[in-house]
Amino acid sequence: MQPNIKILERCSTPRGEIQLQYRNNNYEIISNGTFLMATYNGESERLMVKASLDCVHKPQKILIGGLGVGFSLSEALRSNRVEEVVVVEIEEKIIEWNNLYFAEYSDHALSDSRTRVVKADLLKWMQETNEKFDVICLDIDNGPDWTVTEANNSLYKEAGLNTLLGLMNPEGVIAFWSANSSEAFALRLSEYFNEVEEYTVEVERGVPDVVYIAKLPK
Which CATH number belongs to the domain containing residue 161 in this structure? Predict the structure, then answer.
């Protein structure tokens, strides 16, 4: 272990091991040995939400898949046009860590009266809910080509996209965060939506983060 890393908590879940560590004045979450998220940067997560809100005339109800460290939720709550943000997060520990450690990084977003956190598997929850959303922002894994949790693959496939369309208001948008560009996924989105935009955000190391925004369902 690197000397500047302090492991704060490590626990087992049905999806494997999840670890919270503190390094260089920031928190990092590791899932099954793979880096998942951290309290530094957050530019691409914020861009995903801001660009999505800009596409919608009345973005009143927002769905965020994956709480992360709260960057996406915090960005959604910056808009006074937003009336409610539903955040679906599968890991109880991530919700707990947001309350205990990440609040200052997310402007205490979980305490906002417009926030509703649902502890659930997003894929199952999408099948069961009858709610509709103006903006859907999805960041439950590392993207269509590199999922830490194998079951999340279906979110980016035909079944997942069809389910998402059922949650979307007619003039709404859906955004996907990805740790890398995926030409195949962009093409798949174009089969379901008339407009697909790809945003890239440079990172300090490695390939840029990517955000896909899809609107105008076919």
Answer: 3.40.50.150
